[in-house]
Design brief:
single chain; about 450 residues; alpha/beta; Rossmann fold; 8-stranded mixed sheet; 4-stranded mixed sheet; 11 helices; 18 strands; elongated
Length: about 450
């Protein structure tokens, strides 16, 4: 190829045009990056993105919430904390975030009783909530808690052997109650013998597996509460003589005798057939909020007696077809035709009634063990328990904040694999590039 002055000029023009186009492309990409904010989360469980429930809550948040973040500039948690809060501000720009270095603000640290690096204080008006755990669940729960227009009181009835909301024993409900408190609910216990009225500001009454019969006066107090549109969660158990048959009659529900038997439990590594696994949920916000199977250690079946004009019934939890209700449950239980009740059966019903433009909500569950400290950590039991309370408290849009865990696999390399990768990048790849370069040089020289 013969190169003359004309060819040199054409090459200079081509190079000039190329550099101008390259500069123009860089400017265009810079403008595009400023005007657009598109993020892609490629982690296995989307842990660097907010859940749809949190995003929906943030878009509905119309109150001036302030987040004070106490962390030093050099603290290793600072990047992760900044990233989390920036995701919240991306969906709700009105969220006010202040970063405070605790080393230079001792007065504020003492005033707010700050206990650790990375602690957050979420404030709205006079309400404050401290967040110690760096997670979406904790921060969203705090935002929900301070943004509630009024206190949501959950009243646990006591005096009949019920499960206690504040005791640590396996039978009791302290783990569930602690989670509800984190979401802004307030709890108290109430003995209907000592108090003849359920407080008016009660979001829901909880009857957790009573073992003794109620007095007629206590039944009347509860009926009066329900007649005035009160919400109720009733956890009942398999029992030969149910202690609250009067309440079942009031709700037009039938508590079927016997305990549910699941013949497939051994296939799942559970030796006791009295464990019922539920995978069939109603097309309802509570069912949609429950992400996987739920486990019920000893459950009773429930059925409505008849349709009436007061209550609308919806079965929430349904068993598989091969599950039955056994009058004499044991580890070697067999279905007895004409004695036992064949499945599929329902172990939970939702009752609704509209009164004066307000929907009254009642949930009746044929087992309380699934919320106990022993079993609430199994599968999606906690999700179901929280969703039930959010529904009863009319917080339909906040029924669930899904829990995200880090499920990305850790890459572990053997010494041989590490040596191979090291040689590939340090020797083989450079040698290959050098060989390609020499080949191109030799080819061009021969032209």
């Amino acid at each position: 190829m013969k190169i003359n002055s004309k060819t040199h000029r054409q090459l200079r023009i081509q190079n000039s045009v190329f550099y101008l186009l390259m500069i123009g492309l860089v400017i265009l990409l810079a403008q595009l990056s400023i005007k657009t904010d598109t993020q892609i989360d490629l982690t296995a469980n989307q842990r660097h993105s907010l859940s749809e429930t949190t995003i929906r809550f943030l878009t509905q948040l119309d109150k001036p919430v302030t987040i004070q973040t106490f962390i030093s500039e050099t603290n290793e948690l600072k990047p992760a904390l900044t990233g989390l809060l920036s995701r919240y501000q991306h969906h709700q720009p009105a969220l006010v975030v202040h970063y405070i270095d605790p080393d230079f603000s001792p007065e504020i640290v003492r005033e707010l009783n700050i206990q650790q690096q990375g602690e957050l204080v979420v404030s709205l008006g006079q309400q404050q909530k401290h967040v110690f755990n760096l997670s979406e669940q904790s921060l969203t729960n705090a935002l929900i808690s301070v943004s509630r227009e009024q206190d949501k009181w959950l009243v646990f009835i006591e005096g009949h052997g019920e499960r206690r909301p504040d005791h640590q024993a396996n039978f009791n409900l302290s783990t569930w109650t602690t989670t509800l408190k984190q979401k802004g609910f307030k709890t108290k216990t109430l003995n209907l013998v000592q108090h003849q009225q359920i407080p008016r500001n009660t979001a829901a009454v909880i009857i957790a597996s009573p073992e003794k019969s109620w007095l007629p006066g206590e039944i009347n107090v509860l009926k009066d509460y329900l007649d005035n549109g009160g919400n109720l969660l009733w956890l009942t158990e398999p029992h030969e003589n149910p202690p609250l048959t009067a309440l079942a009659e009031y709700l037009e529900l039938e508590l079927l005798p016997g305990t549910l038997i699941n013949p497939n439990t051994e296939l799942l590594g559970i030796p006791d057939p009295q464990f019922t696994l539920i995978t069939d949920y109603a097309n309802h916000p509570i069912g949609q909020a429950t992400s996987s199977v739920t486990l019920f250690p000893k459950a009773a079946a429930i059925a409505p007696k008849a349709e009436n004009n007061l209550w609308q019934y919806q079965a929430l939890l349904s068993t598989p077809t091969n599950v039955w209700s056994d009058l004499n449950p044991s580890l070697q239980a067999q279905f007895e035709q004409g004695i036992d009740t064949a499945g599929p059966l329902d172990i939970a019903y939702l009752l609704t009634s509209t009164q004066e433009d307000k929907q009254q909500r009642i949930a009746v569950i044929g087992d309380g063990d699934f919320l106990s400290n022993s079993f609430i950590g199994n599968a999606a039991n906690l999700e179901l328990g929280v969703a039930l309370i959010n529904w009863l408290a009319d917080d339909d849009s906040l029924i669930t904040i899904p829990i995200k865990t880090t499920i990305d696999n850790q890459l572990e390399l053997s010494k041989m694999n590490s040596l191979f990768i090291g040689l590939s990048f340090l020797v083989i790849l450079p040698a290959s590039l050098l060989l390609i370069g020499l080949s191109l040089w030799w080819y061009r020289r021969k032209q």
